[in-house]
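For the sake of transparency, this paper describes our internal protein records without simplification. An entry from our holdings is shown next, in its original layout:
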Amino acid sequence: MTNLNAVDPAAAAQDAHLEGADVVIGKSTIIFRRFMRNKTAVAGLAIFLALTLFSFVGGYFTPWDKETIDPFNIGMPPSAEHYLGTSQAGIDLYAMTVEGTRISILIGLVVGLVSVLIAAVYGCTMAYFGGKVDKLMLFVLEALIMMPALLVVAVATSGGGAGLKQDLPSWLLLIIVLLVFSWMGTARLIRSLSMSLMQRDFVKAAQYMGVPPRRIIWRHLVPNIGSLLVLDITRGVTAAILAEVAFSFIGIGIKLPDVSLGVLIGGATSQVQTFPWMFWVPLTVMFLLTGSLAMMNDGLRDAFDPSSSSSGKARKKRARNNGTDQSLVQKKAS
């Protein structure tokens, strides 16, 4: 007679394995784990955080600042008193590098974050309302794209904007100008993606239920393009830092007495043979900044991609565990 209460060892082992495999893990946890498994991306994050920390606390490790002149050490190479040497005016390069790194990171973070936020709201609004609203907003977008950013920066930070320039520091003026011209491309991409989301059932259901447009945009459209926004933030920070360096290098960006990496690089270019430390120190910091952001961007792209190779170790480990469990089941069954 067959015992109905008997338990098959093979079936029990298989059920236990399935129960362990069905543990639900949040999407943010999965993305974080994939990112942390990418050693290159983690190294980029560590470099960026180290430079950010250096820009905020590095000034406490030297008695000099970016305005104090040392008349006894003019154009001197790195020494125990001046860690990175002095400029041809006798100003400590270490203090100027700390200040310049902080200004460049500040410009990059503000422009990168705010421009993506503006692009998300603008693009999602265009896609949600459509029709005449979309056409009008698209016209404004195309008009801004056609404006010469280089000319506007030159006017805003030079004699043409003298009244405004006297009231605001040059780095804040540059942030405002970069914000005006840095969000249009992302907004067009977000508009096309949001238009496809507008055809999804959850958006239509929210509309039929009378959910306000602002809530639909913030709760349904923006979160569903979150991966694109995160990647655009890192790209936007990099682009803003490079734009600051480029504009300051040619003399239409940040102006003295404000200091940035672009100002330091541009001021030392003509004297790279005489004062090489004045050129290579800020250039190295710029490369570390942009390189670390590029490494982080690659890691984030792999982390958001379900088919990414960054989860290869976990897949191999799971496959190995599955093979071990199957062999145990077969042994118990036999």
In short: The chain has one domain: 47-326. Residues 143 and 158 are 24 Å apart (CA to CA). Residues 47-326 form a domain with the MetI-like fold fold (CATH 1.10.3720.10).
